[in-house]
Design brief:
The protein is α/β, with parallel strands linked by helices. The chain has a single domain, classed as 3-Layer(aba) Sandwich (Rossmann fold), CATH 3.40.50.150. It contains 5 helices and 7 strands, in the order H-E-H-E-H-E-H-E-H-E-E-E. The protein has helices at residues 26-36, 54-61, 74-87, 101-107, 126-135; strands spanning 44-48, 66-71, 94-98, 114-117, 144-150, 162-170, 173-180. The protein has a 7-stranded mixed β-sheet. The chain is globular, with a radius of gyration of 15 Å.
């Protein structure tokens, strides 16, 4: 894994030895950020299921104002900290939060511009997490949610809360670019 573009371009990122952690490949990451273009610049980004920090670090490299890394795994957070320290990312540019994704989403009252979600392939409550995120009033129609998930763990494509504006399959993964619907039913 490496940082593809921006101020940290070419820097290598460590990944965990934990086989449950599946980092986003450089090819998928390049696709995501080619679609996003300059969107992360000067924005607040949240990287849920951050793992080694691959997506969040790429956002910082491309000018994100601040990235919030959320992960429940102590092992993942250890690797994340090693990556952040190796790259020498200033402390005011990130915050690390150890939390279960659903618990974080239920309690979050802070707005973010870009939501990056890369859950483990076997993550049964994925739809529940999406519903919680999109029902939250801090997520607006101006925000973008990027979700990478396993084909065998599908999401509701006809939601009252969100719209999938772009979708692409990469092997076993599906990448969804999603926005909140303006007039949704509660």
């Amino acid at each position: 894994m490496r940082v593809i573009s921006g101020i940290y371009k070419g820097r290598k990122l460590k990944s965990s030895d934990d086989l449950h952690i599946r980092p986003t490949t450089d090819r998928v990451k390049e696709f995501i950020f080619n679609i996003l273009q300059d969107f992360p610049a000067n924005k607040k980004v949240i990287d849920i299921f951050s793992g080694s920090g691959n997506l969040g670090v790429e956002s910082l490299s491309r000018g994100a104002e601040k990235v919030f890394f959320v992960d429940n795994s102590s092992q993942s957070l250890k690797v994340l900290r090693e990556n952040i320290n190796a790259i020498r990312i200033p402390e005011d540019k990130y915050q690390i939060i150890q939390s279960d994704a659903i618990k974080f989403a239920e309690k979050n009252n802070q707005p973010f511009d870009l939501y990056l979600l890369d859950p483990p392939f076997d993550y049964p409550p994925l739809q529940r997490l999406l519903d919680i995120l999109f029902k939250n009033e801090v997520l607006t129609t101006e925000n973008i949610v990027v979700l990478e998930h396993e084909i065998s763990n599908p999401i509701d494509e006809a939601s009252n809360f969100y719209e999938i504006i772009k979708k692409k399959k990469f092997g076993r993964s599906i990448i969804n670019f999603m926005i909140k619907k303006g007039n949704h039913a509660n």
